[in-house]
Every structure is written in C-alpha cells, then in structure tokens.
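Q: A small favour: would you put together sequence and structure tokens for a protein?
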Amino acid sequence: MPSRAARIGGRVVQVADDQPTFWDRVAAGRWEPDTLAVIDAIVDDRTTFVDLGAWVGPTALYAAAIARRVVAVEADPAALDQLRRNLAVNPELAARVEVVPRAVHARDGHVTLGARRKPGDSMSSTLLGDAGRTWQAATLTPEELAAMLSADERVVVKIDIEGGEYDLLPSLAPLLARTEAVLVSFHPKMLTAASADQREAARRTRAALAALAGFHARALDAKSAWHARLAPLLLRWRGHLICNDWLFTRR
C-alpha cells in the first residue's frame, strides 16, 4: 500500500497502514486531542516515551517528533506489521523508535491475547482469551522494561492495553519508580465483562490505582469543569473511575 500524508495534531506524518478512516478522525481532531496536548506539554528532547500498546503508532509517531527516543511495545501481530510500515515511511522518526514485539505483563513467558473482531483492530486484549481470534505472545516483564532504560533518561509512560492495565499496574513498580508521568486509558467495561462479579472488578481496580498512589491524578476526558474537579476526588477517596483517560504526574 502506498504511503499517504496524515495530520496528527499540529504535525504531518506519512502512514502506510490499513486504517484510513482512523486517520480521517485524527485529522479532524476527533481522536484523543487531550492525549496529544499532554504529549506536547510533558514530552521534550530529554524524554524517553514508553508506549505500552503502541498499536499502529499514532502516539509513538507523534512523540518521536520531540522525544529523545520512543520505546513502542505492541503484541498484536497485525498492528505490529502496520506499525513497522508506518515507521518505514517516516525514517527521520523511525530512527528514534525502538519496537518491542511483546506483551508487557507481570510474568515471564507467554500470554494469550484475543480480538472480538480481528487482529489489528486496536481492541486486542489479554481479557479476551475466549474470543474467536486468539494468539500467543511472548511477555516483557516490568523488570525487563526498566532495564532497557538508562539512569539519565526522563521517562514518560503511556498505557493503553485494552483492560490489561488492571493486572499490569500492580506489578509495574520497577518502571513507575523512575517515571515522571503516566498516561493511562482504563477500560472498566472490558474489566466488568471479564470479571466474575462487580466485587472482583472493584478489587482489581483498587489494586491498579494503588500502584499510582504516589502520583497526582488529572482526568483527561472530563465532560465539564465540574466533572474534572470531581473525578480526582472520587478516585482518591473511593477508587471510583468516572473518567477513563488519566494523566498521573509526580507530586
């Protein structure tokens, strides 16, 4: 497939993937404008941007324009193929991006991922092991990921792994200990569907949030100023996620 220009935020990149309607949404400003604004605000030329769930590369490509380097972790084989094609047509950005074709996970070995529709659709997850399409992926532990970073790197982490964040975050201390900011997309509906009951889902949510207790929380997808003020209070006092997309920064 020939490459084409795609506007993401205030930048133009080349893309060669199979996602034309996605890039139309991006160009129209309808895809995560708050996420892009946060990357602009907190990523600089000293930053290593660790992209957990890089998919076809929108945030990896965007951050690579300004970051010292990007570590793009992705375990969906179809998404990996498209990510690599997108990097190949952006050689000046690709020079700063390291692709890791593994699934970040608490344990060493392999993990099962699944997709309800098809691989590469941005919704593959470890919570979908019973889906019609499944595959095995080698894991990357938090200890291995932290070892990939040198002591002088300023680390910003993005986590968007379609529900896998609930099991990953409690084990992520080796990376979080040296991380300045964390962008997290939570997926409570996927967690509820995969849990035995509401109590289990609530327990897993609290365990994930406890890993971020040393950070200041800000909701990115709040619908109003009142919503934005209330969301962090409910998160801190009750462990309630009334917003799904969050920025956690060091206090």
Remarks:
- The longest helix spans residues 225-238.
- Residues 48 and 153 are 6 Å apart (CA to CA).
- Residues 31-250 form a domain with the Rossmann fold fold (CATH 3.40.50.150).
